[in-house]
Inverse folding.
């Protein structure tokens, strides 16, 4: 019960933060991308990390948040780890890197992992982005849903849609 309340408070605080930050929509190019996944799915989502080069984005503007309850063996310098224990009683997040992640204005925000993860859902809902992409149709926050469990097909579809939106250099 207390855990549910912490998630509720964190969501409210993060969404309040949205009202204080304006998202610039309809920019010509994609310059900042966010990706949220779980530690269990990290190896599987590695093809999505290639988007950084394909979209010609600086490494510092391609952020990866890995939701995990335990220490993970993810080897990527862009990875920021976020554990449920870092959400404190008042809904505050006790991780500076994660706080900065939530303050970022992403042009595109992508979610992918085959398993359900409450923390990942919270991140996807509260991230600030002009375009949110998910692979599960149950994601009401997604602007674009690409229904597939195949990460390579997901990757190709993301590129296809971004070209249609003419946001790739």
């Amino acid at each position: 019960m207390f855990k549910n309340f912490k998630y509720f408070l964190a969501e409210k605080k993060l969404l309040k933060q949205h009202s204080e930050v304006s998202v610039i929509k309809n920019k010509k190019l994609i310059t900042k991308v966010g990706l949220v996944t779980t530690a269990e799915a990290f190896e599987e989502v590695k093809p999505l990390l290639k988007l950084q080069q394909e979209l010609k984005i600086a490494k510092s503007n391609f952020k990866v948040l890995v939701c995990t309850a335990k220490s993970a063996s993810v080897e990527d310098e862009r990875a920021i780890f976020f554990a449920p224990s870092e959400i404190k009683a008042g809904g505050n997040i006790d991780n500076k890197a994660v706080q900065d992640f939530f303050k970022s204005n992403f042009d595109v925000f992508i979610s992918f992992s085959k398993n359900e993860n409450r923390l990942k859902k919270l991140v996807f809902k509260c991230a600030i982005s002009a375009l949110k992409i998910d692979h599960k149709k149950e994601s009401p926050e997604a602007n674009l849903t690409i229904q597939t469990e195949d990460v390579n097909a997901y990757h190709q579809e993301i590129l296809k849609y971004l070209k249609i939106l003419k946001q790739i250099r």
About this structure: The chain has six helices and six strands. The mean pLDDT is 84. The radius of gyration is 15 Å. The longest helix spans residues 2-20.
